[in-house]
Amino acid sequence: MSSADAIVVEGVEHSYGDVTAVGPIDLTVPQGEFLVLVGASGCGKSTLLRLIAGFEQPTTGTVRTDGTAPEPGRGAGLVFQQPRLFPWKTVGGNVALALKYAGLDASADRVDELLARVGLHDVAKRRTWQISGGQQQRVAIARALAVENPLLLLDEPFAALDALTREKLQDDLRQVSASTGRTSVFVTHSVDEAVFLGSRVVVLTPRPGRIALDLRIDLPRTGIAAAELRGLPEFAALRAEIGHAIRDRVTV
Question: What's the confidence (pLDDT) of residue 176?
Fold first, then answer.
């Protein structure tokens, strides 16, 4: 494992009983990369993410993050499809709790700074049930960013949101990623989302999930509006290539 590698997956297979969900997979993720895992439903994207997070152990092979075996809840910020906030705390209280748990500065100024990073500078004192689903998901992202772990793992965090909110949060996350330089792994079903967010996209085959396509996304990550980026011919070409890779692997 190179000192520049944030994640190394070597010869990994993972089975549930007699069913092999993933593998074999070999995958290396350099530090600072935004990797998107995409593929048909049931292809093992979330399983691979849980292996990287340390929530599950591979049946065979090894996973290393920052040179060591991953441990759940340590070394990685996690964002799930549901925000999983504490409803008895305020928005700011949810972020402050993450900071306190890590032994970091949990002052109001620090909480406001993190909320402002995801466009929520004015809601710190509200209860979580007083804000929209999209805002709740932004709080979850702010909470994951609160502890400056080198790795950010996101499992379809925008899947349940309406189209407009989803596009806004995609843009927010893209900007936050560019500004922090964290290594990120993002799971999605959406080809458009994969191209928009990723600096690299890996397409997995239907079960068992194996790498069907590993594609570098050479699109500008700063200084361009979302609509302009999506309108680039290069964006359309990458979206088509990834879409073909997924469809070619799905048995009709």
Answer: 77
**Cβ pair 70, 151 in contact under 8 A:** no
Interval 158-170: pLDDT, tens = 877 788 878 888 8
Query: Which candidate, 115, 219, 231, 224, places its Cα nearest to that of 175?
Result: 224
Sheet holding 19-30, edge to edge: 19-30, 5-16, 60-65
Q: Which helix (H) or strand (E) holds 229?
A: helix 226-230
pLDDT mean across residues, the chain = 86
Q: How far is CA 239 from the centre of its chain?
A: 19
Predicted pLDDT at 19: 87
Residue 234 in tokens: 């290069």
Given a cut of 80, is residue 146 above it in pLDDT?
A: no
Alpha carbon distances (Å) from 9 to 26, 120, 187, 195, 206? 5, 36, 16, 23, 19
> How is the chain split among helix, strand and coil, in percent rounded to 5?
35, 25, 35
The one-letter amino acid at 247: R
User: Which carries the bigger pLDDT value, residue 221 or residue 204?
Assistant: 204
Measured in degrees and rounded to the nearest 5, phi and psi for residue 43 equal -85, -5
DSSP string of 36-67, one letter each residue = EEE-STTSSHHHHHHHHHTSS--SEEEEEETT
The pair of three-digit structure tokens given for residue 216, joined into one six-digit string:
């570098």
